[in-house]
Amino acid sequence: MEFYPIPQPDEVSDIEKDDAMGAYFMMFATTGLGLPLPIINLIASIIYYYLNRSKGRFVQFHSLQSLYSQIPVTLLNSALVIWAIINLVNDTPFTNTFWGLVITAGIFNIIYFIFSIIAAVKAKKGRFFYFLFFGKLAYIQAYKKMPTNENVKVNLNKPPL
């Protein structure tokens, strides 16, 4: 795989730095709305990515990393909210398993907040901060060189299967 060169901090414009930082801070802005409905944060991340992906690879990387890392947090928080609603509607007591999920979700959210703050500060400085697993996915998607039409051999004749 070939990749485009990674820009150095002095090569990234202030507007790109602000837009990249916004990918992480946007999550904090929607948290108030997202507490009762965690899916709102994910929807906001998707919208932010699609509005900003064409503003350069640096912004695209940070928007993707924010989006990708939002997915498991949203799923975990949604499971917790759904379970709580079911228990409340059915007047069922909360089990130790539920409270274990509450603690797990709390830990994941705290880690996600810390990583997002670090990544936002780094983005504002024109730097990269790679989240475990999600950073590599975002990097590959944002910086991988796509084959050009000159290098791609198109097979016009295909088997009948």
From TrEMBL:
Record field: transmembrane: 23-51, 67-86, 98-121
Broad class of where this protein is predominantly found: membrane
Location of the protein in the cell: Membrane
Entry superkingdom: Bacteria
Keyword vocabulary terms for this entry: Membrane, Transmembrane, Transmembrane helix
Membrane topology annotation: Multi-pass membrane protein
Identification of the protein by name: DUF4870 domain-containing protein
Organism this protein belongs to: Tenuifilum thalassicum
